[in-house]
Write a structure and sequence with these properties.
Rossmann fold; 23% strand; 9 helices; four-stranded antiparallel sheet; alpha/beta; six-stranded mixed sheet; single chain
Length: 258
Amino acid sequence: MTEHKTDRTSSADALRIQGLRKSFGAQEVLGGIDLSVAQHEVICLIGASGSGKSTLLRCVNLLERIDAGSVWLDGQLITARGVDENLVRRHVGIVFQSFNLFPHMTVERNVTLAPMKVLGLSREEAAARAAELLGRFGLAEKRADYPDRLSGGQQQRVAIVRALAMRPRLMLLDEVTSALDPELVADVLDVIRELAMRGMTMLIATHEMGFAREVASRVCFLADGQIAEQAPPAQLFSEPSDERTRRFLRRITDAGRL
């Protein structure tokens, strides 16, 4: 990313979001988000559907243009006028609940395409990177398969591998298990656990409360377009301080999801 002296802060945070606002028409979805994510930290975003979790991730990856506020990546302002959005996205991987794999390409080609086209890796270098990642996540034997030959869980793992092949500084995961059958969820969560253990900085929107409790450094509860409460998981799930958090967790507990 192009750097300018005025675009940097002295912060050691991997990600800093200040006063972020985003509306769609008359509806304000994000009403002033402030959040810092340290290097190697895993932040889980929880909240009801429509609370702004996915929109926040899309704003961080510059897929949505923000209305106000700022986003800093490794101390550099990435929401400044003139910033190359594609250059930023080299460093910020994002995985959605829909797998978005290219159906006419093999697993290996899905993983090697961006490193070759965007990073300029040779076919051999990209293939070696893909082989290491596919092997690491139990997909080596699927290298030559096409996406329609894979289960939903395997496709989602390939989508995560594809993002990792770019060696991002930050990973954004948007409800990556919500489109999966329950028996396939565990495999994908195992991948994310392994990333957390290896120190990947992650911002994760999730409905998996047990997973958030286990893997997150902090949990942020979003309500009414704002972070209503944030705390370490043991504290937030056991002793939430905001009444909106308490109501949300009661509903989750009554539904047997916590």
